[in-house]
Amino acid sequence: MQVLAALADPTRRRIIELLASREMAAGEVAAHFILSRAAVSQHLQHLLDAGLVHVRTVGQRRIYSFHPAGPDQLESWLRHCRELANGH
Hints:
three-stranded antiparallel beta sheet
């Protein structure tokens, strides 16, 4: 499950929290971390691959935003596990 793997990293979880409040350019996201911009870009790519963020290009900037439906697969799996545990 790609969503779970992406969210296993605390830096990626923090990026999701930032993008849930507003969209940001990649450089704006990177400014919140002591990591290199390249490292933050890799984290953003993982989140994009997992369907947790959207990206759009404005000029030469890449603007990222949280994709609210991204965690649906994880929520569905958790719901299924709860149902199994409750004997449903």
